[in-house]
Amino acid sequence: MSLRTESFLVGLIGDGITSSLTPPMHEAEADAHGMRYLYRPVDLDALNLDGASAPALLDAAALLGFNAFNITHPCKQSVMEHLHELSDAARALGAVNCVVIREDGTFYGDNTDYSGFIAGLKRSLPQVAEDPACLEHVVQLGAGGAGSATAYALCRLGAVGLCPLRGGAAAAPRQAGAGRGRGRAPAGPRLGGGGGRAPGGDGGGAGRRLGSGGGPPGRGARVGGGEPHRHRTARRRCGARPGARHQRGACR
Asked: Catalytic: which of 76, 91, 156, 222?
């Protein structure tokens, strides 16, 4: 017999992730530490589901004895309202990439994209990570979900001017050229001084507030942000207006 505290059953929820290298990587690392650890991909595309199904999958996983999940596209934002507690980083970034299912069945969301980037930078380029002068002006290729996390990390390390170029390396020459001759950086705002101001937050973990009345996000919580809230009801989808109150079977 294997209990939740004796072995670990975890998974990855996302779209098109059946061939992801994350499960074998995690299992190999666990083997090296002598841990009993199984990692299962939950591919929304293979199951004919969409991102709105993530909360229901988490509920089912809690009943089945899962310990935790990594969360990737397209669920990093949509799953947040279903969580009972968030780390400061998750609140500041407005996204989670991992959810821990606690013994009492509650869900704790965190975002380790930014901390992983910091750890890698300190290991590979310590002279840059430990010297704020090297981060005075930073050009970042990409401004998507992972880009927000690395921008947050760079601000935490002391970046003063951060210029994200949308579209990655392919778009960089075009955007850089667009900025020449106008006496300014190509795209994106400068972010604060003295440690910077993280995207979506205030540099100290305060970000987009979820829920209403200070309570934990979850069913019945008010959804913030400018994008319409969407979730799957019994046999239909609803697309309530921003700020709608989420309830089972209806949004208003």
From this structure: 76
Please provide residue 88's backbone torsions phi and psi, each rounded to the nearest 5 degrees: -60, -40
- 206-238: string of b/e by CB count within 10 Å (b at 16+)? ebeebbeeeeebbeebbbbeeeebebbeeeeeb
- Give CA–CA dist 70/10, Å, rounded: 8
What pLDDT, in 10s, does the model give residues 194-210?
A: 344 344 433 333 333 22
116: exposed, middle or buried (C-beta count within 10 Å: 0-12, 13-18, 19+)?
A: middle
d(CA 83, CA 71): 12
Helix boundaries (H) for 96-194? 113-124, 126-129, 145-156, 172-179
Cα–chain center distance at 65? 23
pTM score, whole prediction: 0.63
% of the chain beyond a pLDDT of 90: 48
Q: What is the pLDDT of residues 71-118, one digit of tens each?
A: 999 999 999 999 999 999 999 999 999 999 999 999 999 999 999 999
Both structure tokens of 56: 């229901």
Q: Is 122 a catalytic residue?
A: no
